[in-house]
Amino acid sequence: MAQFQGTLHGSARTAASRQGTKMSGLAAHLRGWNLGVYVEVQHRDGRDTILVYRTGGSNSPALQECIASLGFEGGDAGQSQRKE
Q1: Does the residue 13 lie in any domain?
Q2: Residue 33: inside a domain
Q3: Which domain holds residue 52?
Q4: For residue range 23-39, what is the model confidence (pLDDT) as tens digits?
């Protein structure tokens, strides 16, 4: 059963959607030529987390730094951090 869902919109007529389980997670790399973000959704230690990394886009796709970390645990809004 899917724990996570993602939808991507672009020039295609329809959106592309994907699902991830607690085991697989879900990840996407959205990018221009020199700037991008890599987003990971995971389930670790009983809580859902989202990590957002800055990348160098298509020109340099390596993860450069974590710019945001979000967490959700049960009915609690969890912890949110924005890094700059």
Answers
A1: no
A2: yes
A3: 21-82
A4: 999 999 999 999 999 99
Burial of 55 (0-12, 13-18, 19+ CB in 10 A): buried
- Whether residue 15 lies inside any domain: the answer is no
- Rounded to two decimals, what is the model's pTM? 0.79
Q: How far apart are CA 23 and CA 1, in angstroms?
A: 11
Residue 28 lies in a domain: yes
Within its chain, how far is the Cα of 29 from the centroid? 8
39-79 pLDDT per residue, tens:
999 998 999 999 999 999 999 988 889 999 999 766 444 45
Domain count, the chain: 1
Kindly tell me the burial class for residue 6, based on how many C-beta atoms sit within 10 Å of its own C-beta (0-12, 13-18, 19 or more): middle
